Amino acid sequence: MDRPLDLIELIAKIERERNEACRELEQFRGKYQKLEKENLELRQANVCLLEGLAGLREEINHLKHEVARLKGLKGPPDIKPNVKPSGMDKGTNPKNGEQEHKRRGEKQHRVPVEDRVVQPQHVPPGSRFCGYENYTVQDILLKALAIRYRRARWQTPEGQYIVADLTAGVTDHVGGELKRLILMLYHQEQTTIPRLVEFLTALGLDVSERKIVRILTEEAARFKAEAQAVLRAAFRHTASWCSVDDTGARHKGHNGICTQIGNHLFTFFATTRSKSRINFLELLRAGYTDYVLNDEAFAYMREHNMPDWVIDKLQEHPARRFTHQKAWTEHLEAIGLTLVRVTPNPVQVATEGALWGSVKDHGFLQESVILSDDAGQFNVGIHALCWVHAERLLHKLNIFEGDAQNIKERVRHQIWGLYKDLKAYKEQPNAADKKLLRKRFDKIFGQKTGITAIDRLLRRLRANKPELLRVLDYPDIPLHTNGSENDIRCHVTRRKVSGTTRSDKGRDARDAFLSLKKTCMKLDVSFWDYLGDRLGVLPRGTVPPLPEILTARA
After folding, report:
1. Of 79-83, 413-417, 420-424, 511-515, the least confident
2. What span, in angstroms and rounded, lies between the C-alpha atoms of 415 and 102?
3. Peptide bond into 545 cis (omega under 30)
4. Which of 12, 195, 474, 488 is the most buried (most CB within 10 A)?
5. 3-state secondary structure 198-229
6. CA distances from 405 to 255, 441, 554 (A)
């Protein structure tokens, strides 16, 4: 009878020990989970501290440079951080198979070919003539020429003098061909004025820097008008989309902004003092100066949280169209809007709305998409965002932890995959893929990675979902603003070569010729021929007006 009792006690003892072990195991699990959570929080805090440390180091370096500048010391060179482009756009292109190497045929020359027959020095008697063997040489004839027009002068019986008119196209002491060469070298080849003088002097010509400046500026008035006409034609007939960008530009010793507007058919540059939304809307008027209060203007005001009583005050007044800025400002003062101190600023929003109303009143940008890099001043109308700039934020994110770096690369891989499928959707849009792509966007940008910096960035990008997925409703728009960045590069080069502009004529000439040069390139028009036609060197009509070519291409 003792053994069963001992066995029962032993089993009970083992059960108690097992329960005790289970309780200790649960305690260890709880401690482990708590330590794991603390470890994750410490890792995130470490990442934030490292990011803050990097920011403090950058601020300290900036303060050191500022102190050195104030002391008149020479600071270190301004070297940009070595952050390579992510290459998302090229990396998601489909890989083509090996291209077949085709044999090149005879080269077709774009210039007239002059035949010159040459004979061998000695031909043995009895030889048979077998035709000619062609050998083409490209060359150029460049020589200085001074033309003296001997204008016949007659005196009438009344004592008045009659002098023969100059040849058509001759307006001053510089011929059309020389003007064309100067404009071509300066704007197309980015040559400086001193080097132009040196080059022309070497040819035997006597042209001063002042004369070249006059040619560059005084010839620009009609070219500026055509550049403006190109913009109007594009906005009315061809611009189902346009991408925009801006860069710094010095003018009269002050910092300014050069704004680029364009697509695959045209480019337009305009340098102004401000990069505000009002400035951008003024450029979208394409040279017009009016302010219009119409349905589009009031819709813009409501969209930007203008108080209803302010809109009612504008609607109650019979005046709806104002020819220039002074008339518009006087109207705002007359109705007492300039004295109102509320948020948002009613004067600013009303001005933006009236400018947008003017854009629509002139028939510009009807159902057109404006593609930008997420700069706030460009967020008007139907707005789309550049995917390359969005992904670049994640690419440039400083992550020092090994696990966090792996998470970052995983998220980037997901974004690359979505971008690749968006490119495929552009080729064959359909409703089913549109729905799936929207769900994939929410899944990628709505995930929680546990890394504070990455999660914060994903939330920011998810808030831009309508602009980033605009391509689903407008498949013809690009997914990036690479075209704008490529266009604006010529302006940056001009800025590096020539620095600032000192007069309004010089600024307008630079913007107009750069606009026309880029537009000619996109329309497959020779800029050399274009200048020759406009300066009267070539027969009129050799190059039709660019707005007509633009409309025909669209």
Report:
1. 79-83
2. 38
3. no
4. 488
5. HHHHHCCCCCCHHHHHHHHHHCHHHHHHHHHH
6. 39, 21, 46
pLDDT of 532 higher than 70: yes
**Cα–Cα distance for residue pair 23/28, rounded to 1 Å:** 9
* pLDDT tens, position by position, 321-339: 999 999 999 999 999 888 8
State percent of the chain over pLDDT 90.
56
Bridge partners of 292, per DSSP, are: 321
Q: Which residues contact 286 (CB under 8 A, 6 or more apart)?
A: 228, 231, 232, 235, 362, 364
Q: What is the CA radius of gyration of the chain?
A: 35
Give the residue carrying structure tokens 């611009």: 239
The answer to whether 168 and 108 have CB atoms below 8 angstroms apart is no
The rounded distance, in Å, linking the Cα atoms of 377 and 276 is 6
Average pLDDT over residues 333-362: 92
Cα–Cα distance between 202 and 368 in angstroms, integer?
A: 51
Are 168 and 536 in contact by the 8 Å Cβ rule? The answer is yes
- From the list 417, 406, 416, 415, the residue with the least C-alpha distance to 451 is 406
Q: Is 48 left (phi over 0), alpha (psi -120 to 50) or beta?
A: alpha
- Residue with structure tokens 């019986």? 157
- Whether pTM exceeds 0.70: yes
Spatial CA neighbour of 284 closest among 233, 372, 359, 375? 359
Determine the Cα–Cα distance for residues 288 and 358; give it in Å rounded to an integer: 8
Quick check: 1 pLDDT over 50?
A: no
Nearest Cα residue to 171 out of 227, 225, 214? 214
The Cα 92–Cα 388 span in angstroms is 12
| Chain centre to alpha carbon of residue 69 | 33
Closest CA to 244 of 493, 478, 514, 520: 478
Distance (Å, rounded) from C-alpha 529 to C-alpha 542?
Answer: 8
Return the ∠ at Cα 335 (arms to 329 and 341), rounded to 5°. Answer: 85
Query: How far is Cα 514 from Cα 517, in angstroms, rounded to an integer?
Result: 5
Distance between CA atoms of 431 and 505, rounded to whole angstroms?
52
Q: Taking the mean position of all CA atoms in its chain, how far away is CA 60? A: 33
pLDDT of residue 137: 87
> How many CA within 13 A on the CB side of residue 430?
6
Q: Cβ neighbours of residue 325 under 8 Å, at least 6 residues apart?
A: 289, 291
DSSP 243-269: EEEEEEEEETTEEEEEEEEE-SS-EEE
